[in-house]
Every structure is written in structure tokens, then in C-alpha cells.
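TA notes, week 10

Several of you asked for a full example with nothing omitted. So below is the full record: C-alpha cells for the whole chain, then the designed sequence directly under it. When grading your own attempts, check the secondary structure regions first.
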């Protein structure tokens, strides 16, 4: 059984594992969005195919890290939410929606790829198909993937704004405990 991350000692800061999952996810999301937005600028050909492949690999990595993150969250003590208790419901809702989006968006991308009739590879390993080839579902899956990806960006914006509000206006340790622990 996994042992809880006690590196935060006083119970107020996030532990090393929680912070690593958080910032690794941030880096992967920046990379994934940067790659997919650059695809449109690339001419049709091998470079474009490689960029799409890189986007898929990063997306699958986000999925894997998020699964690990959720599992870790089940065994690790979370520090208490800072700020007014009247806003704790919003904090919980945003965090839950962020985690759900980090699971659903990559799964829709995977399903889209399969519905187009293509295999999904991760580090050269062919992953099982989530769905059979289906043109109609491929359009639904990519529409959902793109819509939820932009919704995820909106949630991330709200999350960043709240962290900055805590840091700059309320002057509490919310941001510091995720940055440094």
C-alpha cells in the first residue's frame, strides 16, 4: 500500500508528490496546446503527422499522470482549503471539474483517433481501441474533445485567477504551498 506524502509536515502545504503531479500536468498541458495550435501552420506532410503524434503522446501522458494523481489523492492527506468557507464549494467544484476534464479530454481524443480507423500508439506500443471505426462518432468525439479542451482552458484561467487573488489580494499562503510546499 502507498504511504501518504508526509513531506508537507505541518499539514498546511502540499507534499512533494502532489506538487510534482500539479506542475508536471501544467507543463504537459502547455506543450499539448502549443503543439496542437502549431499544427495548423505546418504544411500537410510528415512534420504535421509528427506534430499530431506528439500531441497524442502528450495527451496520453496527461491521462496517465491524472490517473496517478487521482489515485495519489485517495491516499494522501490534502491540506485544508484556505479562504472563506463560503467559497469552499467553488474550490471543490473547480478542482473536481479540472480533474474530470483531464481524464475526459484525452479519452475523447483517443476515441476520435480510433473512430477515424487509426490505432493509438504510446511510445511505439499500440493501445487497445476504445471504439470501432465510425465516421459519425469521430465527428462527435472531436467536437467534444475540442469543446472540452477550451472549457478546460477556461477552468484553468479561473484556477490561476483564484490563486493570484489569494496571493495578491488576500495575501495568504495558497499559492506558496503549491509552489514550494
Amino acid at each position: 500500500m502507498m504511504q501518504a506524502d508526509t513531506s508537507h509536515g505541518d499539514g498546511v502545504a502540499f507534499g512533494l508528490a502532489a506538487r510534482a503531479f500539479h506542475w508536471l500536468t501544467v507543463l504537459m498541458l502547455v506543450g499539448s496546446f502549443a503543439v496542437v495550435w502549431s499544427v495548423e501552420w505546418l504544411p500537410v506532410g510528415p512534420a504535421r503527422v509528427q506534430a499530431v503524434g506528439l500531441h497524442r503522446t502528450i495527451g496520453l501522458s496527461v491521462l496517465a499522470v491524472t490517473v496517478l494523481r487521482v489515485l495519489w489523492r485517495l491516499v494522501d492527506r490534502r491540506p485544508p482549503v484556505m479562504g472563506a468557507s463560503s467559497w469552499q464549494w467553488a474550490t471543490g467544484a473547480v478542482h473536481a471539474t479540472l480533474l474530470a476534464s483531464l481524464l475526459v479530454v484525452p479519452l475523447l481524443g483517443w476515441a476520435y483517433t480510433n473512430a477515424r480507423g487509426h490505432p493509438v500508439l504510446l511510445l511505439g506500443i499500440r493501445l487497445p481501441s476504445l471504439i470501432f471505426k465510425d465516421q459519425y462518432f469521430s465527428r462527435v468525439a472531436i467536437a467534444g474533445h475540442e469543446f472540452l479542451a477550451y472549457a478546460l482552458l477556461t477552468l484553468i484561467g479561473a484556477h490561476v485567477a483564484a490563486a493570484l487573488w489569494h496571493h495578491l489580494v488576500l495575501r495568504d499562503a495558497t499559492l506558496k504551498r503549491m509552489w514550494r510546499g
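The chain has a mean pLDDT of 88. Use that as a sanity check on your answer.
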